[in-house]
């Protein structure tokens, strides 16, 4: 547990352990980047890759194997936890500079594009908000150095959601020296971007940190699921990485953050990832961890006193009311002690 050597007690740039979770062994933050909620043309690729013509059903109207939100919400609710979903709004290809039109990368991004303001997305946002899940911003590919675009995306998401968002993560983990300045400028309170899609671990330390020494907090990413050995082919190896990270987090009183993309819960396309996620959460609970979304943990931190108004003009009292609303019941109900860790039937 924390002691006088805890950097959060002496370094104002480090966010220490909230007193509300001081009895927990460590914290596990659960996040999902909503990159591609629709499968579409990827059905052809998976049909060839898996030699499975049934994959072609994903091309039929009304069939969408990557819409996994119902299953994720049911899974997390059954475990008594909540998580964060970061929503993306990539610009239309024709809205980009003409030089981007010949770049295959932007065609791929365009193929996965969706609108958070679409009716089924609005319905999903309503369900997330009502159920106590966090909704955050997944800044588009180029927004990390474009505050005007970032602000527009944030305002679009908030209009669809019906309330402010607290934080989020940049698409493809993009950032530059001024990204956090832009985040503060548009009114975000935290960022969860620093990390890797190919490596895991606590490369950025064991605690959230404050790059400006104020209430803006950075939650480094410990593990993105695609960095792991493929659990469909080597589940034991993938689980060993997760178990080792949990043990290190417990030993260091760490704040561990994980990213599981919603489409990877599609068992036919990505076998093993759903099972691995469940086992990760259950083991963390068995170890006495605080488990929940970054906004809830942010809400529990003791922040430096802000100015009379926040960066986006919202009053301090308004910010406090918003944080309390985001907390919901999860703050007091996230340390669940389930029974034995039993994987769901295949």
**Helical segment tally?**
10
Overall spatial form: globular
* Terminal CA distance: 37 Å
Helix residue percentage: 25-40%
Return the string of H and E elements: EHHEHHEHEHEEEHEHEHH
Oligomer: single chain
- What is the CATH homology-level superfamily? Glycoside hydrolase/deacetylase
Mean pLDDT: 79
Strand tally is 9
Q: CATH first level: which class?
A: Alpha Beta
Computed Rg: 20 Å
Overall number of domains: 1
Low-confidence stretches: 1-10, 41-48, 52-61, 308-346
CATH architecture name: Alpha-Beta Barrel
Largest sheet features: 9 strands, parallel
Structural overview:
By secondary structure, the protein is of the alpha/beta class. The protein has one domain: TIM Barrel, CATH 3.20.20. The chain is about 35% helix and about 10% strand. It is built from 10 helices and 9 strands. It has helices spanning about 40-50, 70-80, 105-110, 120-130, 145-160, 180-185, 235-250, 275-285, 295-300, 315-325, and strands at about 25-35, 85-90, 135-140, 165-170, 190, 215-220, 225, 255-260, 290. Strands 1, 2, 3, 4, 5, 6, 7, 8 and 9 form a 9-stranded parallel sheet that branches. α6 (about 180-185) links the parallel β4 (about 165-170) and β5 (about 190). α5 packs across α6 (about 180-185) and α7 runs parallel beside α8 (about 275-285). The longest helix is centred in the C-terminal third of the chain and has 17 residues, at about 235-250. The relative contact order is 0.17.
């Amino acid at each position: 547990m924390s002691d006088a050597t805890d950097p959060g007690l002496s370094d104002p740039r480090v966010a220490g352990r909230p007193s509300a979770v001081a009895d927990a062994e460590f914290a596990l933050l659960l996040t999902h980047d909503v990159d591609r909620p629709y499968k579409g043309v990827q059905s052809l690729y998976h049909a060839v890759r898996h030699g499975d013509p049934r994959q072609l059903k994903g091309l039929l109207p009304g069939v969408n194997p990557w819409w996994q939100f119902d299953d994720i919400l049911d899974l997390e609710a059954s475990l008594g936890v909540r998580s964060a979903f970061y929503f993306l709004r990539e610009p239309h290809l024709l809205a980009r500079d003409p030089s981007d039109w010949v770049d295959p990368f932007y065609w791929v991004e365009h193929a996965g594009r969706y609108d958070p303001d679409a009716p089924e997305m609005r319905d999903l946002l309503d369900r997330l908000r009502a159920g106590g899940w966090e909704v955050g911003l997944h800044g588009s590919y180029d927004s990390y150095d474009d505050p005007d675009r970032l602000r527009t995306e944030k305002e679009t998401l908030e209009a669809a959601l019906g309330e402010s968002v607290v934080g989020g993560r940049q698409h493809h983990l993009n950032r530059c020296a001024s990204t956090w300045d832009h985040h503060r400028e548009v009114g975000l309170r935290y960022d969860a971007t620093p990390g890797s899609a190919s490596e895991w671990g606590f490369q950025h330390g064991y605690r959230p940190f404050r790059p400006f020494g104020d209430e803006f907090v950075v939650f480094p990413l410990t593990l993105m699921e695609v960095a792991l050995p493929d659990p469909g082919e080597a589940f034991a190896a993938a689980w060993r990485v997760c178990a080792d990270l949990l043990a290190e987090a417990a030993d260091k009183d760490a704040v561990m953050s994980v990213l599981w993309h919603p489409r990877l819960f599609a068992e036919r396309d990505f076998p093993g990832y759903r099972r691995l996620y469940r086992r990760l959460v259950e083991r963390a609970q068995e170890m006495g961890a605080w488990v929940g979304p970054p906004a809830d943990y942010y809400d529990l931190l003791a922040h430096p006193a802000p100015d009379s108004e926040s960066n986006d003009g919202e009053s301090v009292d308004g910010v406090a009311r918003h944080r309390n609303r985001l907390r919901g019941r999860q703050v007091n109900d996230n340390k669940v002690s389930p029974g034995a860790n039993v994987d769901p039937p295949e």
